[in-house]
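LAB NOTEBOOK - FOLDING QUEUE
OPERATOR: T.R.
BATCH SIZE: 2
PURPOSE: Compare the predicted C-alpha cell outputs for two unrelated chains run back to back under identical settings.
PRIORITY: normal
REVIEWER: second-year student, initials M.K.

ITEM 1
FIELD SEQUENCE / FIELD STRUCTURE:
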Amino acid sequence: MLLEEHEQKWREFWSRSGIQLDDELLQSTWYRSLYFLRCITRRGAMPPGLLAGLINDTPAWHGDYHTNYNIQQTFWSSYPTNHGDLAEPYDRLIAGYLPRAKWIARRVFDMDGAYYPHLIYAYEPPDPDACKSENGRQYLHHWWAMTIGVNGFSIQPLWWQYKYSPDPEFLKETVYPGLREVANFYCAFMDQCDRSAEGKWSSLHPCRRNTGAGHQPSSVTETARSTWRWSNTFSPPPRRPRPF
C-alpha cells in the first residue's frame, strides 16, 4: 500500500512536465535536477538553506538565506516546469518576513516601506520589537547587507509565482502587500537621492548613505513596474517619489 502510494505520487509529479532532447546528458541533467528539487522542498516545509543541503552539518555561512541570488535560484526551475508548489516555502518565507522587513526599513534607513536584506535566517522572530536583544535579533553583515537591489530581487519570485499560476487571492493577500512596501521603500530612498540638473536620478548614486545599487539593480524597475500595474486594483496604493 505504501509503495503504491509512493509510486502514484511520483507518476503525478512527472506527468506535469517533461522534455525530449537530442543531447542525452542534458536531458538527464534536467530530470535529475528536477528530482533533486523535489527531494529538498515541498509545500509546508522550511526552504533549504545555502547550497541546498549539498554539504555537511556545518555549512558555510551557517546555511542561511542569501538573497543576492542563492536562495532564489533554488526555486527558479519550479515555475517553467509546472511545479510552482515547490516554491511555496520561499513564498511563505518572504511573506512572513514582511513585518521584519518593514522594521529594518524604519530602524536602519529611517524610511517607509520594507527592506529585505542580503542575508535572512530561518526562524527569525517576525516582530523585532518583541525581542529582548537591543538589535531585535537582526544581523546585517558589512556593506552587502545594505545594497538596495536585493530588496526587489527578494520579492520578485512571488510575482513570478503569480505569473505562472495566476491566482487572484494569492496576488492580493501574498504578493501585492510585499510588492507595495518594497516599492514604497524605493520611493523613499529615491527621495533622498541627489538629482541631475535635468531632474534625473542615478541608480548607482550612493544617495548620501553607505549603500549602493549592488546586486540586481534592474529589480528596482521591475518592482516598480509590477506594483504600478496593480496599484489601481488593490489598496492602499504605493507611494510615489516626490515631484520635481
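ITEM 2
FIELD SEQUENCE / FIELD STRUCTURE:
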Amino acid sequence: MNAEKSKVVKAIDSIGPSVTVSNVCQATGLAIDHCQRLLNEIAAESSGKLLVDSKGNLSYALQTNLSAWYERRSQLAKFNKPMSAVSHACGYVIRVSFGVFLIISLVVLSIVVGVPVLTLALIGSVIGFFQFNRLGGGSYSTVTSFAELLSWGWEQVFPTKGRHHSDINLDGAIDDALVSDTNTESSKGFLLHCFSFLFGDGFPNRDFEARQWQALTQVLLKNRGVLIAEQMSPYLNAAVVEESIALPVLARFNGRPEVTSTGNIVYTFEDFTKSSPAPDAEKVPQYLEARSWQFSNLPFDSMWKVWVFCTLNILGCYGLWLARALPIFAPYHVIIEAFFIYSVTLIALPVIRYLCISYLNTIIDLENEVRAAHSENLTSPSEALGLKLSEREQLIPLIALEPQGEVIYDSSRDLLEQEIGPDSLS
C-alpha cells in the first residue's frame, strides 16, 4: 500500500466508516479526482457499499478499523505466497510420481507379460518356418500381429526417418496426412496423454477476468461511458444486482457515481465519454459465459489407448496380486501390492475427477444462467429499471463529450500563421 492510499485509509478510520469524497479530500489534502479513485479502489477491495441519503448525497460505507483490516490482509498475502509455492511443488511431485510409477509399471508388466508373449511369438515363428518349408506358407503375419498388439504409438513420440511401404501411394508420393500427423494432438506422446487422462488440462477459465474487462470496455464504449449497475451485471459474478457490484468497475476504469433526481445511481467514466464507439462495439456479447470443465482436451483417437492401457494395467497388477502367494513372487510381496494400489488409483482418480468436474460444471451453468437472466432483464425492464435506464439516457448529453475533432490550433505554431494560413503570409 503506497503512502497516498495509506493516508486515505487513516482518514477513513478517523472520520468514520461512512465517508464522502469531500470529507477525505479535506482530511488528506489530495486532489478530488485522486481521492475519488482511491476511495473506489478501497471500497472494491474491502467490500464497501454506496449509500444515498434523503438529500441525494452519496457516501461510501466502509469497514471499521480499516487500517487493521489491511494489515491482516498484508500478513495473509505474505503467508499465501510461500504456501502457494509449496502447493505447486507438491502438485508437481505428485504428477511426477504418477509418471515414474507409470513407467515402472509399464516396464514390469512388459517383462512379466511380454516374455511369455515373445516366447509364444518365437515358437510361432519357428513353427511357421517349418510350415513355410513344408507348405510354402510363412509366419510374417503372426509376428506382425504381435508387433501391432504391442504398439502404443511410440513412433509418433520418436518419429523415424524412414516410412513403411504402406505409407506411400501408388504414384510414389508420401501420404500428406501421415506427414502432418506429428503436428496433431497425438504427437504429444502417450505419457502426456496419460497425464491429461489423470489430471486433466487445467482450469478452463484462467482468462475469465481478462475477458470480463474486455467485455466491459466494449459496453462502456457502446454506451458512451455512462452505465448503471444492471448493465454491468451480465459481465460480473453477481447473484443479486446491488450498487456495490459497480465498485470494482469504478476502480478499474476510473469511474464516478452520480445521483439522479430520483435517488438512483448512474456511473460515469470520463475516459470513455471522450472516445468514439469502436467499430466492433455493437458485437459485445449479451452476457459473459464461463467455459465448462472438460475431462480432457484430447480427441477420442488419442484417449482410447490410455483407457486400454489402464484396463490392461489393472488386470495385470490384479493378476500379480493374486499370484503373490507363489514362491517366485514372495520376495516382491510389497512391490506387487504397491503396483496394485497404483493401478487402482490410476482408474479411481479419473473417476473421482469426473464426478468433481460434473459438480463444478453445475455451478458454472448456474452462474451463466444468472448472468443470462440479468441480460434478459435489460431487454424487458421492469418499471423501476426502465426509470433508471431513461435517467441514464438523459444524463448522457450532459456528461458525454463530442469525439475529438480536427486540430484547429497548435500552441507550437504562430497564431497569425494558423489564422490566415501559411500560403497567405508568403
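REVIEWER COMMENT (ITEM 2): The chain has 17 helices and six strands.
FOLLOW-UP: none requested
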